[in-house]
Amino acid sequence: MVYTLPHRPQLLVIGAGIAGGMVAHKAALAGMRVTILCDGPELRREDLVDRFRQAGAQTMMSPYPEVPHAPQPQVARTDDYLIQKGPRPYNQQYIRAVGGTTWHWAAATWRYLPNDMKLKSRYGVGRDWPLDYWDIEPWYAEAEAEMGVAGPEDAPFDAPRSGPYPMPAAPLSYMDRVFQEKLSALGYAHISAPQARNNQQVYDDRPPCCGNANCMPICPIGAQYSGNVAVEKAQAAGAQLVTGAVVHRLEVGPEGKITAARYLTPSREEIRVEADRFVLAAGGIEGPKILLMSTQENAPDGVANRSDMVGRNLMDHPGSSSSFDSEMPLWPGRGPNVISAITNLRDGDFRSEHAARKLMILNMNPVEGIAKAAIDEGLTGEALRQAVRHRTARRQVITAFHEQLPDPSNRIRPSTEGKTDQLGLPRPEIHYDVDDYVARAAKDTRARVEEIAATLGAAPGSVEHNDGYLPNNHITGATIMGDDPRDSVVDADCRTHDHPNLWISSSSTFPSVSSVNVTLTIAALALRLGDHIATEARP
């Protein structure tokens, strides 16, 4: 039996992360009746911190309770929720709860560059966005103000700006200052990373950073912005929040409009919600899966999928990681996890041939891994203590985000083998690979890291590289944006081509992944979309 809610919102937002929260907040402030559906629970920061401290294995997901009715991918789990079918695994982690995955992000809030949105016309690869940088720039500024971004002014190889950051950049650690000196001598632009983390001041009632260095997986005091803030503001403006609501179907009316969404509760009750307008903000994997599960007579291939592009063009930032021991002790692990980055590989004519990159100096305390390795070597007592101290003070890690081009063969779809979750819904099946465009850049990255390590006094041949195209949880492209309804899912306003009252707010709409973190662009487009919907709804 399906129960239809008597309360009919003007706007139904599916998803309660940063995108859904910001769209809902904008619409609620404009006086719209807004309902937000979240598949997972509400979380309390103090509970998450306690879970993290008590966890046997302190991983990215250890603070977060398992949600049996809404499984959360965990790379370390052998029976992972995601079904890997491609040449390479698309190992991702995301949180299905109010606030979404920004509970455990690094708070990096980079803007895309103007050329990131014009890859095809500028470099002859990938796709262009159906809008340009200056269409989004005012919304970048609003997103930075909303999230409280601290960043460097007039930094080289950063995006152009119409105004200053809300807060000055976080001070570089001793380690980052040494890197800056050495890297500048090699000709690199090494800058403070813009971050949505309060810097030495209270901002939006959030305290300043206290330097705990475990921003990933949980900021213990809330100095770092997380998506639950947007949801709470939407609720304060009048939006209704429903948790434990796993949407599995959108209904299409005879004129192509979406008429209702159906969700399952943890006890498998089915609820139907009618609304005037719908925003799908369920994330880069769950959102496309909902569309593809919604097959029906007037949408035989799924909702918004006349182009056959839903689920396709899946991207991330295939990553590399290199570690070495510097000659002098630099003591990483003081302050936020990532404070600085190398930016002059973000753009250039080389993008016609290989991927752009952002290289980051990781500022995480490596003592656990170093201690385990030393114990495996058989060290004990004073020898163990000295080895751990010596290596921890000198262990340096450089990671890289490599830009990936959209490829329709990289895709997500509901399980084709009948594999289901606890509610009986298909699990996501992923087909994914990384092409030579990335591989050529990764080879160059390795050579550059070798040069940097030598400059910092690393012993010849001692650099350890992980070139396995590490996942970075930047799930992009599976409901791609474009002008042509034949090869894209949404238009420049994130409205689906097929359904005039359905929009998508997610990094899944991005035609390019750039070489930087995607969250600020998600937020900017969400604010723009919320304003667009509120304006359109005015009588």
CATH fold node name: FAD/NAD(P)-binding domain
- Rg for CA atoms: 23 Å
What is the CATH homologous superfamily assignment? FAD/NAD(P)-binding domain
Number of domains: 1
CATH class: Alpha Beta
Shape call: globular
- Strand arrangement across the biggest beta sheet: 7-14-15-16-13-19
* Terminal CA distance: 36 Å
Low-pLDDT residue spans: none
CATH architecture: 3-Layer(bba) Sandwich
How are the SSEs ordered, and which strands pair?
Elements: E1 2-4, E2 11-14, H1 18-29, E3 34-37, H2 45-54, E4 83-84, H3 119-123, H4 133-147, E5 150-151, E6 167-168, H5 174-185, E7 190-192, H6 228-236, E8 240-242, E9 246-252, E10 258-264, E11 270-274, E12 277-280, H7 286-293, E13 319-325, E14 338-342, E15 357-362, H8 367-376, H9 381-394, E16 395-402, E17 411-414, E18 428-431, H10 436-455, E19 464-470, E20 502-504, H11 519-537
Parallel strand pairs: 1-11, 2-3, 2-12, 3-8, 4-18, 5-6, 12-20
Antiparallel strand pairs: 7-14, 9-10, 10-11, 13-16, 13-19, 14-15, 15-16, 17-18
How would you sum up this structure, described in words?
There is one protein chain. The protein has 539 residues and is α/β, with parallel strands linked by helices. The chain has a single domain (2-537), classed as FAD/NAD(P)-binding domain (3-Layer(bba) Sandwich), CATH 3.50.50. The chain has helices at residues 18-29, 45-54, 119-123, 133-147, 174-185, 228-236, 286-293, 367-376, 381-394, 436-455, 519-537; strands spanning 2-4, 11-14, 34-37, 83-84, 150-151, 167-168, 190-192, 240-242, 246-252, 258-264, 270-274, 277-280, 319-325, 338-342, 357-362, 395-402, 411-414, 428-431, 464-470, 502-504. The strands form 5 sheets. The chain has a 6-stranded antiparallel beta sheet. Strand 2 (11-14), helix 1 and strand 3 (34-37) form a beta-alpha-beta unit. The longest helix is centred in the C-terminal third of the chain and has 20 residues, at 436-455. The model has no long low-confidence stretch (mean pLDDT 95).
